[in-house]
Amino acid sequence: AQAATRSKGRPRASVNVYQLLREEREQSKRSKSEESGPTSPTRISVGDYVKLRRLDEQNGLIEEILPRQSELSRKDAGSTAEKIVPQTLLANLDQVVIVLAVAQPEPHFGFLDRYLAICEATRLQALICLNKADLPHASAIEEAAEQYRKLGYTLIFTSAHTGEGIEELRAHLKEHTTLFTGPSGVGKSSLVNALEPGMDIRTSEVSEATGKGRHTTTGSRLYPLSGGGWLADSAGIRALAAWNIPAEELAWCFVEFRPYLGECLYNDCTHINEEGCAILQAVEDGVVAESRHKSYVRMYMGEER
Ligand code: GDP
Ligand code: ZN
Q: Which atom of ligand 1 is found nearest the CA of 184?
């Protein structure tokens, strides 16, 4: 679907990402036992797959919206109507490329950890991109990169300037609907341009200030990649950025913590300072990186959650 959804006068948007996905999963689990199929969405959104009946050369009729794999929605804090029916920004997003630069600006791994956790919480595939690999950088960055690869994440060094890593990145985008995110200045637009010369796509969130000082955020759009796959523009970033991971789910969103969950002395362990905490022990043993645990604590305390 190419239709862009539009909303006006939103000074602040709160979000509800993938809540519906979970509900839908629950529902499909339930309905399987009741031997009826999963329900189809009733309102079309950007990213939807549809069953189309061809009427003639020019025209077709949408007969059905196929069940969504994921749903990125926004609900407005001030609108009761949307609290009940969140507006879908984008359907079927399945991958997030988190872009950092090796230098200029220096990488902020806390940012990376936060987005990786959000990707785990929302079941989106995460891909890490360390751009500006052509610039001189500290060996500590190579070590950090290795650390994330050991966690199981795909990490690619790229340079929009020399072309390093671009083919590899392109291969990972094929067959996926991908959103690029990252701090400004890391080279997101340059990467998109290296991938697809001439593509005019918003890679950072833009809010257009109107005369009244309010913000207008337009809906999301998808752009086809010539090698296959789709790029989502940045309209969905705010929805992801504001995603709140429930405190009790947060530890699970740090993949290397998972083997220790359930091993702590106390059932309701927050893994912050408790005695007998298996995760703190793993940090002390050097099995879990202290930097990752610090990111966890920061997010748990709500500074970046
Ligand atoms: P965005 O804000 O993340 O979209 O970043 P831009 O694509 O606008 O790039 C910010 C600056 O970094 C620009 O001056 C680019 O020329 C530069 N830049 C982007 N990619 C690279 C790269 O791979 N290597 C180097 N050296 N500079 C880059
Ligand atoms: Zn613990």
A: 2
